[in-house]
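From the methods appendix. Each design record in this collection lists the tokenized structure first, followed by the designed amino acid sequence. Records were kept in a plain field format so they could be parsed without special tools. The example shown here is representative of the layout used throughout.

RECORD:
FOLD TOKENS (153 positions):
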């Protein structure tokens, strides 16, 4: 093994770490293989010559440190971050519902599911039993954003 092999492993390792950060974050496969390539490159450098090994080790630490500092700066993440704000609200808006409103179950309420009440699709919860889809239902209780229903008898 020679110095060229060590430099090839180091280059591959750095490229895999950059791929992990920018192209495939969270997968960890390229990051782990990249770190492994860096370690192999450093070990090969020490096997060639202790001086080469030390130079490779220090160089790798400097380059890794510089990349880490660059990545941890806020401006770096601003360039690749999504800047959209979420303006919609989740869940049911129950302000227009009153107890006794009627509708129809769209899915099987087991005990939760979807229903159409006052021409609006809502998530509802069956109060005492399962309710099949297509059954007429009525609102019997509203607790915060949760809507409890029973079949109309």
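DESIGN:
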């Amino acid at each position: 093994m020679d110095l060229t092999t060590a430099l090839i492993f180091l280059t591959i390792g750095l490229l895999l770490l950059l791929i992990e950060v920018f192209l495939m974050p969270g997968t960890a496969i390229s990051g782990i293989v990249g770190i492994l390539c860096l370690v192999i490159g450093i070990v090969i450098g020490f096997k060639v010559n202790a001086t080469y090994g030390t130079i490779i080790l220090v160089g790798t630490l400097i380059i890794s440190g510089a990349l880490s500092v660059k990545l941890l700066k806020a401006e770096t993440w601003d360039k690749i971050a999504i800047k959209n704000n979420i303006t919609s609200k989740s869940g049911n808006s129950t302000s227009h519902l009153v107890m006794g409103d009627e509708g129809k179950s769209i899915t099987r309420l087991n005990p939760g599911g979807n229903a159409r009440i006052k021409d609006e699709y809502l998530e509802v919860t069956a109060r005492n039993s399962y309710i099949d889809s297509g059954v007429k239902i009525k609102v019997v209780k509203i607790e915060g954003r949760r809507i409890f229903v029973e079949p109309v008898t």
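APPENDIX NOTE: The mean pLDDT is 85.
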